[in-house]
Amino acid sequence: MILKSDSMNKLINDLRNLPATVNEVDYRKRGYHLEVELTSGQVHEFASLLRDLGFYLVFVSAVHTAPAIQIIYQFAGYCRPCRIVGRAPVAADGSIPTISDIFDGANWHERETKDMFGVIFTGHPYMQPLLLPEEGADLKPLLKRDDAVKTMDKIRRPAAPDREQGKDL
Q1: pTM recorded for the entire structure
Q2: Which of 103-107, 126-130, 141-145 has the highest mean pLDDT?
Q3: Is 34 inside any structural domain?
Q4: Average pLDDT of the segment spanning 93-106
Q5: Which CATH number do you get for residue 43?
Q6: Which of 55, 60, 133, 164 lies at a CB distance of 3.0 to 4.6 Å from 75, suitable for a disulfide?
Q7: Residue 148 falls within a domain, yes or no?
Q8: Structural domain tally of the chain?
Q9: What is the pLDDT of residue 4?
Q10: Would residue 10 count as lying in a domain?
């Protein structure tokens, strides 16, 4: 069921004013309500808007895709049942602005993402290794071989099949 209310419509319009591409999705099939496609330059404004609207950060991670690594942000609301996923490609130099100045919890998520994928979060106050030893900082264990990298269309999870009433699949 897609949420439709005045507050949801206002949220969608606020996100589109970034400007960003906003797609409504079925929570039962995706686990979130809105999917927002961003540029790396929109990330900071996106996070500020969601903070101002009462959302909290659930996680920051990445997916190694072609043509660029995608940073994934998930937010949820305290005051309404709404989850939002934001996706932004890193810049050609492998960087994207930090949101740790907006959401303190992004600090360790961004450090972990740097450890695993090598993404630099510009403006981050302490971009030191979190999980890897200092001598292993160049490992980037979640980067794929060039011949194994796929586009987002190829790896995007298909929507779950509808469940028949009263029956588990």
Answers
A1: 0.85
A2: 103-107
A3: yes
A4: 97
A5: 3.30.460.80
A6: 55
A7: no
A8: 1
A9: 62
A10: yes
pLDDT tens digit string along 2-57?
A: 446 788 888 899 999 988 999 988 888 888 899 999 999 999 999 999 999 999 99
Three state DSSP letters for the chain: CCCCCHHHHHHHHHHHCCCCEEEECCHHHHCCCEEEECCHHHHHHHHHHHHHCCEEEEEEEEECEECCCEEEEEEEECCCCCEEEEEEECCCCCEEECCCCCCCCHHHHHHHHHHHHCCEEECCCCCCCCCCCHHHCCCCCCCCCHHHCEEHHHHCCCCCCCCCCCCCC
Short-list 167, 157, 164, 165, CA closest to 32: 157
Domain assignment present for residue 70? The answer is yes
Q: Output the six-digit token pair for 60.
A: 């920051």
Tell the residue number behind the tokens 């507050």, with chain if given: 7
Domain that holds residue 57: 6-128
